[in-house]
Design a protein that fits this description.
Layout (H helix, E strand, L loop, with lengths): L7 H17 L5 E3 L2 H4 L4 E7 L8 E6 L5 E6 L2 E4 L1 H4 L7 E7 L8 E6 L6 E5 L6 E3 L1 H4 L7 E7 L8 E6 L5 E6 L2 E4 L1 H4 L7 E7 L8 E6 L6 E6 L2 E4 L1 H4 L11 E8 L8 E9 L1 E5 L5 E3 L9 E10 L8 E6 L10 E6 L6 E4 L3 H5 L6 E4 L8 E4 L10 E4 L3 H4 L2 E8 L10 E6 L5 E6 L8 E2 L4 E4 L6 E7 L6 E8 L8 E5 L1
Parallel strand pairs: 6-32, 29-36
Antiparallel strand pairs: 1-28, 2-3, 3-4, 4-5, 6-7, 7-8, 8-9, 10-11, 11-12, 12-13, 14-15, 15-16, 16-17, 18-19, 19-20, 19-22, 20-21, 22-23, 23-24, 24-25, 26-27, 27-28, 29-33, 30-31, 30-34, 34-35
């Protein structure tokens, strides 16, 4: 995990840290939440969801070197209940994904391991009181070096299918047939044998089904699997995201999606060992690398990117975690997205407090306290690291310039991963902000939580949700929403 060609980055760490501190004065302000609880080391994936259906978001953290934890939130206070509800596995955990696979309204949890222990699918037996491992009975107790797990509806039949990426064997796809699973890896063409670490699903071409990007490691090129009616074709080279490697020490690690330039199309950032890359979606026809133009070029051991609009200005900002074995504070970045929307420029504004409690793997933007400002949850698996939760101290008036949009199906279930949320100034087509219902990211994790979108002081907005359907994308529109009086979260049902 520590290639020789990257050791040079340690020499630059002190100067980079100095630059970070200098920029912190004009950057965001955070405070630690319950540091005595979140301070233990070993965290890798972290995933958020309301597992007990009480109206606030809870956090699962997978560890190496200690039992996994499940933090139940009660009005802003967190308590570890993993042992109590049956999910406190004490084997190295590299993946965690929430999803309602059986459609009963209770969120279930898939957990992936790396040491030969079979993966587990924990069925939520009702409002989070207890979880039961049903992976073996459903044929998804896979073994291998598990990485990204995603619950997605790739065939648009209304239930959640299961994708599992591996670093040591071909990736797998299971179709959900009424709560039972059928392995469709071979017939779908999605079984990429390269060394996958990160993966994210989104509709790259606007045809109404979810496509798959995979970030591959150890010198392997990336894959971009276009969904052609349930069969997948790798178009990474044609679309410009293949990323040929200089050597086996280089490769892709994490991927994250956002419309960074506000043109209505979702773009892609890939954290790499080597130069990381920002790809602009050219109107659903291809991707164009714009890393240098956007001021995002850096070359190091980057692991995990995560987009989040922490200041509610309508432009998604970008956190990128870095990792090198036995280096507790290997450089992270928090890039503020500034400038005109047509030509965004990014500037590193990582606060000193976050720099001192940084990530190595897990990165999640989450408004855990519901005040309208995105908070930040990080994990660091170094022996001297921790897994910290930071409250965003954005002024209240600025925090309220946002909405939390909870996208569910007609029965109120969270089965619409990959749906797109866009906010317009009321009565116009002026796009204010956008977001995606999570399909995987933040280091081998998947959340079930509302989409955070900014309103930027607009007195009223129109909200459009584009959902994936067999006959193409379907738009559900809610007109003239007053951000100051709207429900939080604002639930939108997809017919």
């Amino acid at each position: 995990m520590r290639p020789a060609s990257f050791l040079w980055t340690l020499c630059a760490a002190s100067s980079l840290a100095a630059a970070i501190v200098a920029a912190a004065d004009s950057g965001p302000r955070f405070e630690l939440v319950q540091p005595e609880l979140f301070g233990v080391a070993g965290g890798e994936p972290n995933a958020w969801a309301d597992f007990d259906n009480d109206g606030d978001l809870d956090e699962f953290v997978g560890f190496r070197g200690r039992p996994n934890r499940l933090y139940r939130q009660e009005h802003g206070r967190f308590t570890d209940v993993a042992a109590e509800v049956g999910v406190a596995d004490n084997v190295e955990t590299r993946a965690a994904a929430w999803g309602d696979f059986d459609g009963d309204g209770n969120l279930d949890l898939y957990v992936g391991f790396v040491d030969g222990t079979p993966n587990k699918l924990y069925r939520n037996d009702g409002n989070g009181r207890h979880f039961t491992d049903v992976a073996a009975s459903l044929g998804v107790n896979l073994t291998g070096v598990t990485r990204q797990v995603s619950w997605i509806d790739y065939d648009n039949d209304g239930d959640l299918d299961l994708f599992v990426a591996f670093r040591d064997k071909p990736n797998r796809l299971f179709r959900n047939d009424g709560g039972r699973f059928t392995d469709v890896t071979a017939e779908s063409g999605i079984g990429d044998p390269r060394k996958t670490v990160g993966a994210v699903w989104f509709d790259i071409d606007g045809d109404g089904d979810l496509d798959l990007f995979v970030a591959n490691q150890n010198g392997d090129t990336n894959g971009l699997f276009r969904n052609d009616g349930g069969h997948f074709v790798d178009v990474a080279r044609e679309w410009g995201v293949e990323a040929p490697r200089k050597s086996a020490e280089f490769g892709g690690v994490g991927a994250s999606v956002a419309d960074f330039d506000g043109d209505g199309f979702f773009d892609l950032f890939v954290a790499n060992y080597g130069p990381s890359a920002l790809y602009r979606n050219d109107r659903g026809r291809r991707f164009v690398e714009v890393t240098n133009d956007a001021g995002l070029f850096f070359e190091q051991h980057a692991t995990t990117p995560s987009w989040g609009d922490y200041d509610n200005d309508g432009r998604p900002d970008l956190y990128v975690a870095g990792f090198l074995a036995n280096v507790t504070h290997y450089p992270d970045h928090l890039f503020h997205n500034g400038g005109a929307s047509a030509h965004p420029r990014f500037r590193d504004v990582l606060p000193a407090l976050v720099n001192a409690h940084d990530a190595s793997h897990g990165v999640q933007w989450v408004d855990f306290d519901g005040d309208g400002a995105l908070d930040l949850a990080l994990t660091n698996n170094d022996p001297a690291g921790g897994h910290y939760l930071f409250r965003n101290l954005l002024p209240a008036a600025q925090a309220r310039q946002s909405l939390a949009v909870d996208v569910v199906d007609s029965r109120g279930r969270h089965t619409k991963a990959g749906s797109e949320v866009r906010v317009y100034a009321a009565g116009t087509r002026r796009l204010i902000s956008s977001g995606l219902v999570d399909t995987g990211g933040g280091y081998c994790s998947q959340n079930v939580m509302p989409v955070h979108v900014a309103t930027r002081g607009a007195p009223a907005v129109d909200i459009e949700v584009t959902a994936m359907k067999r006959l193409g994308p379907r738009v559900t529109r809610i007109a003239h929403v007053n951000p100051t009086t709207a429900d939080r979260p604002l639930t939108i049902r997809i017919p």
